[in-house]
């Protein structure tokens, strides 16, 4: 390829990279509920729409909703108690709590905008206070806008990788760096949600130490061959327990 063509490619690549950084800076905003400055490129209304649109498919992937209305009512009651007792009630999000029929996968997760899920496999091992810990953690993900932040970060690194590919042969390297950055931030999201979950438990009258028992349940479920922390988006349960103890002391003095 001629030298002039290479210069044009490099200039185009640099322009794309510059655009990625400019857009990222313009998307910086402070989360009014956590005080953390984040890279966000969507509104709360868009988060709600994404969550509502994705909820049926997520339920289907886990065998649909659990058919026992009494158990679902308990999940609803605990979730609503956490929302009404905390800063979550001041957010624009529409919180719904879903008990999934999956009796094999121990899991709980939240979609953008307030759609929270827990599998029966996990629910069946929990007391009410421990359920509150799990749901409080998921509410923390919503308030922390973690999904929206990951979407914005993914867009940033994709644009950066495109610029690096146009300007040279570094596209795959940049994309790999982006994946590592997202992995690290994911662990931070979990710790932030743990801390918020502890706070919500205390505000709702639940014993926050039950959150530690939840971590022990998750650790036992993972077994001795669980993925090392540096390879996982979730911090090791032992590290999470230490952070939870710090949060309990911070918010309750115990």
Give an overview in words.
The chain is mainly alpha-helical. The protein has one domain (15-252). The protein is built from 9 helices and 5 strands, in the order αββααβββαααααα. The protein has helices at 3-26, 44-61, 69-84, 120-123, 128-143, 146-167, 171-203, 210-222, 237-252; strands at 28-30, 37-39, 96-100, 108-110, 115-119. The chain has a 3-stranded mixed β-sheet, with helices on both faces. Strands 1-2 form a two-stranded antiparallel ribbon. Helix 3 (69-84) packs across helix 5 (128-143), helix 5 (128-143) packs across helix 7 and helix 7 (171-203) packs across helix 9 (237-252). It is globular and about 40 Å long. It starts with a helix and ends with a helix. Residues 10-21, 159-164, 166-185 and 228-232 have low confidence and may be disordered.
Features:
globular; 5 strands; 9 helices; two-stranded antiparallel sheet; three-stranded mixed beta sheet; mainly alpha; 254 residues
Give the secondary structure arrangement, pairings included:
Elements (H helix, E strand, L loop, with lengths): L2 H24 L1 E3 L6 E3 L4 H18 L7 H16 L11 E5 L7 E3 L4 E5 H4 L4 H16 L2 H22 L3 H33 L6 H13 L14 H16 L2
Parallel strand pairs: 3-5
Antiparallel strand pairs: 1-2, 4-5
End-to-end gap: 68 Å
Strand content: 5-15%
Which percent bin holds the helix content? 55-70%
Strands of the widest sheet, in order across it, are: 3-5-4
Average the pLDDT over all residues and give the rounded result. Answer: 80
Largest sheet: 3 strands, mixed
The H/E string reads HEEHHEEEHHHHHH
* β-strand number: 5
Number of helices: 9
Radius of gyration, CA atoms, in whole angstroms = 21 Å
Q: Based on helices, strands and strand pairing, what is the structural class?
A: mainly alpha
**Poorly predicted regions:** 10-21, 159-164, 166-185, 228-232
Shape label:
globular
Q: How many structural units, i.e. domains? A: 1
